[in-house]
Each structure stands twice: as structure tokens, then as C-alpha cells.
Known about the structure:
By secondary structure, chain A is an all-alpha fold. In chain A, 77% of the residues lie in helices and 0% in strands.
Amino acid sequence: xxxxxxxxxxxxxxxxxxxxxxxxxxxxxxxxxxxxxxxxxxxxxxxxxxxxxxxxxxxxxxxxxxxxxxxxxxxxxxxxxxxxxxxxxxxxxxxxxxxxxxxxxxxxxxxxxxxxxxxxxxxxxxxxxxxxxxxxxxxxxxxxxxxxxxxxxxxxxx
Amino acid sequence: xxxxxxxxxxxxxxxxxxxxxxxxxxxxxxxxxxxxxxxxxxxxxxxxxxxxxxxxxxxxxxxxxxxxxxxxxxxxxxxxxxxxxxxxxxxxxxxxxxxxxxxxxxxxxxxxxxxxxxxxxxxxxxxxxxxxxxxxxxxxxxxxxxxxxxxxxxxxxx
Lengths: 158, 158
């Protein structure tokens, strides 16, 4: 059962993560000013691949435990928000709204991590790399907003 | 607790449904050939508003029941897919890929409905209007694909 659960949760992650392939960083992102510590483009899909395995494994460990309902509700909320950032940032080119999405995701991931930890400490620890990566993503979104005030002021024409 | 669960699940629905506001049907959709039975634009947000309340209520009823893990995993998968269709169809203008997404969503919603029903028949019934609406949405996506062969053949330039 835990394998079935793992693959269903992983499918949810893949559905959310598919926006990363559908709305790739194009010339618009390339031309933006970015901080010196910006990871190269290839790091993002690799990082998300590893993270999605951890995120799905954490949910699969906890899903069948008694009283896991709230942790599962927050897990569903984080996966819905996870798929939202890429269409907002790369699709709509809305840097400020992207920051709102990624900061909301950060708070929800932190809450999910605590709720998972209460059910099963190892599941909570599986969310630590995710929280760290969303921290980096939030900092990057913030830095891009500060370094490109004109682009951040108004959404580019679609 | 059931109210807290309801609002967290509803937040997940709102996150997925926000793509409907972010990628509204524009001139491109207006100009497409559509079947005579296409619902008017205003029906869609109203229908989704009611459906999201039912979808969140179904999850809140089931989340704390013992053995609800698989139903919760499929619930998370349907919410991740739910937010994907609008960016694909209205954002990328990819009609065929939209059909793949909405048909996958249909199958996942049907599976979630059965799993919810096993845990709590009323929760399963709360998913019936959702399945009916996704059936209509799939038929509409299919009809639009058939009625606009040129638009469906290749994605419009972004």
C-alpha cells in the first residue's frame, strides 16, 4: 500500500511540476538582472526531481496514520501552490505576484513540515530540503524584483 | 477540527482555481468555433465556486477517518491536475494538451469519488456534480478541438 500511496502522491507532484516544463524560462528571464548567487538553469529540474521524491515519500509514510488528516490537508495545499508559481512568474511574467505565491508556499511548506513531524519525525525531516529550496527560491524572486524595478512594476504584455 | 480541515482543503481548491482568474478566456477563445451548447462565460466561475465548496467538504468529512490515506492521495492528485488545465488551454493555447489534461482529471476525479464513497457515502456523492462538470468540460474541449482543426494542430505563438 505504501508504494501505491507513494506513486499517487508522486503523480500529484509531477502534475504540479509539469508547469516547469510547460512554462520554461525563456529570453525574458535570461535578460533579467539576477543576483550573482543565482543557480544555473539546469540545477532547478534536478533539485525539483529529488525534492518531489522526498515530498511524495513523506506523504506516503504519514497518509495511513490515525489523525493524519490535517497534515494531508496541508500537503494538498502545498502541492496546489507548488504548481502555481511557474505559470505566474514565467507565464504571466508577474514578478511581484510570483513573490506572493512563493512566500505563501514557504509558510504552507513550513506548516506541513511541522504537521508531518508530529505524525512521523522522519517524514518531517524529508520536508527540510524542500523548505530550504523554497527559501532560496523566495530570496531569488525577491532579488529579481529589486534588481528589475521596471519589469516588476507592471506585468509585461502577454 | 472539521471546519479547520474544510478551510485548508478549500484553500487548496482556491489555489488551483486561481489559475482561472489569472488566465482568463480572451480574444483567442472568443474567436474559436464553439458548439451551440457551450455554456456562457459567466457560468464557469459560478459552477467552480459551488463545486469547490463540495470538493472541500467531501475531503473534510473523510480526512480524519481511519484508512482514508488513499482517498486523500487521490484528492491531492485531482487538485494538482485541476489547476493545470487553465494555464495549458488559455495560457499556452494548446487545445490537444488541454484535452489530455481534462481527460486525466476526469479519470482521477472518478477514482477519488469511488474512494471517498467507500469511506463515507455522502462524501462520494459530493463529488458527483464535479464529475458531471468535468464530463461537460471534456466534451467542450473535444468539440473545440474538432471545430478548430488549424488552431488545434499547433500551439499559437506565445
